[in-house]
Amino acid sequence: MIGVDASFTDEMKHHETILSYTAGFYDQEVKMIKGASVYVTDGIDTFDYHEDASREGHYLTDLVAGRKNTLYRLFIDVESEGELLHLKAESFMPNNVESIDSVVVKPFNGGADTVPNIIFGDTIEWLYPYFMSLPDQSIVYMPMVTKNDTLLTDTLTQRMVIPVGGYAGYYINGPEMQAANKEIPIHMFRKSTLRDGDRIHVDLYSIPADYLMYVYSMIMSSGSNPMMGAPTNVYTNIQPSDRAVGWFLTASVASKSTVFEDR
């Protein structure tokens, strides 16, 4: 089978698709795929992914940006087991806020009897964004957090996925939410890992709701014991689903940075 990790956002950048053959649970090596044809289209514009000469199996677009509220389709032609395999997927790039007002690193806002404080005490600092959310209750956020130019959420199991739900239309982490002890942190840092002057950057991805199920199924199927995963295949939006696994993700992104000050 073919493994697909493809993404396209509204950021102006080189968007990436990674292709590989699947491997057994105990296999140590993953064979990357070269020579594939990869492109994304909205039915009007088409964006080709070119094979990266320095990294086998990695395909990059030119410097381009997608558009919010747009359906994108991914097409991949790849050689597999002596035949030309045609893979496809589609993903709707959801809306997002235009900007985040600020992000703050601080202790959890709650009493000593709240679960985070019972578990972690004063050993943890939490990252909070502040912005006026959209009124759409279907929006799901996935924060990508960087410290000193190192991505801390580089694997799915390290990421938080946050459905806005009933907080749609609220000022996130504003006075109303603070008064009700309903603040929403998007990352946690052990105090021992933070230094005065650390640069913290957040890319707040607004993702399709079905990607949330993909993340959850990946987390449930992760681990070192092949008998302890979820009793089902991991979700995929790559078709045909009996020939490929993985996901094609579209997302719109709002970003903000801060500098940590040791109190």
What portion of residues belong to β-strands?
A: 35-45%
Helix proportion of residues, in percent? under 10%
Structure classification: mainly beta
CATH fold-level topology of the largest domain: Immunoglobulin-like
What is the CATH class of the largest domain? Answer: Mainly Beta
Q: What is the succession of H and E elements?
A: EEEEEEEEHEEEEEHEEHE
Rg over alpha carbons:
20 Å
Describe the protein in words:
The protein is mainly beta. The chain has two domains: 2-95 and 232-251, Immunoglobulin-like; 102-205 and 255-259, no CATH class. It has helices at 115-120, 175-179, 209-220, and strands at 2-9, 13-21, 37-41, 46-51, 58-64, 70-80, 83-93, 102-106, 124-132, 140-147, 150-151, 162-163, 171-172, 187-190, 199-207, 244-259. It is globular, with a radius of gyration of 20 Å. It starts with a strand and ends with a strand.
Key features of this structure:
Immunoglobulin-like, mainly beta, 4-stranded antiparallel beta sheet, 43% strand, 263 residues, globular
